[in-house]
Amino acid sequence: MLTVAYLANEFPVAVEPYVGEEIEELLQRGVNVIAGSVRRPRSSEASLALSGTKTVCLEPIRGAILLRAFWLLLRRRKVVASLFVRVLVQGTESPKRRLKALLHTYLGACYAIRLQEHRVDHIHVHHGYFGSWIAMVAAQLLGVDFSLTLHGSDLLVHNAYLDAKLTRCLFCLTISEYNRSHILRNFPAVEPGKIVLSRLGVDVPTSGELLCRPTDLHERQSFTLLAVGRLHAVKDHAFLIRACGELRDRGFEFECAIAGEGPERQHLEFLIGQNDLQGRLTLLGHVPRQQMDSLYRRSDVVVLTSRSEGIPLVLMEAMARGKITLAPAITGIPELVIPGKTGFLYTPGATNDFVEKILSLAEQMRGVDRDVVSRLEWLRHAARAQVLHKFSRSKNLSRFGDLFLQRVASQQLSSQDRSLPHEDLVLQQI
């Protein structure tokens, strides 16, 4: 049986459901999966843990593990020597970043110790952050291959030592064509065949389950905006607050809700007060998934204001429900939101463009021109069709499983003694 270690910076966590979904897909195909988490998951996320699989958590690290990891690094120093050279004398990273990489190398040895008893054949890691360095070190110490999935900011913003990771990985999955082109353009030494598109997806309601549109705007006083995402600086909810202030100054009647929790909450509350938007803009905090349908139903437009993204699940969820979306024209988002066809885009960082788009959409939705209303209806259906065709969770998970097993199993086959020429390792895992 193929045994795969599956590592994330934190697992399980509600904002990254795709990690658990991929693990479940592999489990259903007969793969023995050892889930891994660098950080100890928050107690509120414990209920998301998968049944039927063991989870290895690096934190906290016992003294015995630290000693064994030190001995492992000493014994296998030739195997990881090139990594120490990359950390200490190559590249342009800051001294602080290099020091962190040394620490993460030690954590990689600790992870290898934790995995030894499981006799893993392959390690896969989500995101290109420090967890990917840990996975890479562990794989080299154990003498197995590793692979990784790159999303958005881990590639475009926080990409320290990514050259080393891409050079040493067996393959790299990434969630958008934009990301794949970016990797091949900025890391020309990487073999193009190693970089593979693997889209994420969401469940698409059947026609009978489709959420209805909000109450006719003629029957309401205000226009309703919805933003969904973690309260983190990269999501740039401050931009949305500034835009709401301008909408208010133009005499536009609206309500805006932001669903999500995170470290920026206090700052955003201050900005809401500073812009005198109490009563118009509400921070809802974490909203359970089962309550999200109600929020989508009440919204007129679902907005996104991030500075960096892969292809956000929230846009897929909204479009799968026939909602109008407005997002910045960055990274892989235009692969999902095709302006004027499946949604609308605004110029990144341009508050005026965002505001004008909202005012225009409100005018169209309130209008009496049948052609305009018909075009918006067509767009809603086109948005849902786009998700169904390219971003369906079940379809993309199935493709992921096929791709992952083909790549890993073929490598296993090439590294084994082929004394059984008719043995098909791919079929054994299905």
Q: Which value, in Å, is the CA radius of gyration?
A: 24 Å
Assembly type: single chain
Shape, principal axes of CA atoms: elongated
Helix content: 40-55%
Number of strands: 13
Intertermini distance:
11 Å
Describe the largest sheet: 7 strands, parallel
In total, the number of domains comes to 2
What is the correct CATH architecture of the largest domain? 3-Layer(aba) Sandwich
Attribute tags:
about 15% strand; alpha/beta; 2 domains; seven-stranded parallel β-sheet; about 425 residues; Rossmann fold
Please give a structural write-up:
- With 430 residues, the protein is of the alpha/beta class.
- The protein has two domains: 236 residues, 3-Layer(aba) Sandwich (Rossmann fold); 174 residues, Glycogen Phosphorylase B (Rossmann fold), CATH 3.40.50.
- The chain is 46% helix and 15% strand.
- A seven-stranded parallel beta sheet has the order 3-2-1-4-5-6-7, with helices on both faces.
- Strand 1, helix 1 and strand 2 form a beta-alpha-beta unit.
- Helix 1 packs across helix 15 and helix 9 crosses helix 13.
- The radius of gyration is 24 Å and the shape is elongated.
- The termini are close together.
- The C terminus is likely disordered.
